[in-house]
Amino acid sequence: MIVVVDNRELVTSGYESLFAREGVSTATFHSSEFRDWVETAPDADISAVEAFLLGDFDDRAGCPRVIRSRSTAPMIALSESRNLDGTLDLFAAGVDDVVAKPVHVKEILARVGAIRRRENAEATRTVVGEICVYQDGRDAEVAGKAMALPRRERRILEYLVSNRGRRVSKQQLFNAIYGIFDENVEENVIESHISKLRKKLKMRLGYDPVSSKRYLGYGIGVE
């Protein structure tokens, strides 16, 4: 999920639509609401955020400190004009990247992946048994071979592997895939995505690596 912060509804709704075309969920905020959300949101909601996209608003320079108190996700600031002093001020405030508008959402997603690789190369690769997941956009490897998956199934696999050894609830998976404020999608759709993913993994591995228990949730690498 990408969190977009901007005081202009035209901007936030535009990015919401563009990211949706790429299969990426968003949560949008006015700056007056954003700080309270970051400070009070449940950990499960914060952990679902893949990146923060900060538009142009008055108190933007104070956001990185607040965000970092809860999340390590990349922060990208959007610049309305090329201004060296403004760009340097944003980097000094703690953002990870500054991008001049207009910018395609595919470039934003590519920059998010690049930031993750720079920050911690080892963290982009997680192995659980015969499953290797990359956090930089590459296809997962299952039984030694790349496995191309639809974006939502891949995100579910990444989320399960990143939480290896413990169970996650259907609600947590829903938040990670569709965003915390998407009221147009039924939560039960997660069960359909997981079912398809499990069948594909079983065909490749010969067994189902995803454990599920009623009321407890789903997990990889758990008893």
UniProtKB/TrEMBL annotation:
Superkingdom per UniProt: Bacteria
Keywords tagged on the record: DNA-binding, Transcription, Transcription regulation
A GO CC term attached to the entry: cytosol
Name of the protein in question: Response regulator transcription factor
Start-end of DNA-binding region: 123-222
Annotated Response regulatory domain residues: 1-116
GO terms for biological process, alphabetical: regulation of DNA-templated transcription
Molecular function, one GO term: phosphorelay response regulator activity
One Pfam family cited in the UniProt record for this chain: Trans_reg_C
Residue ranges constituting the OmpR/PhoB-type domain according to the UniProt record: 123-222
Natural source organism: Jiella avicenniae
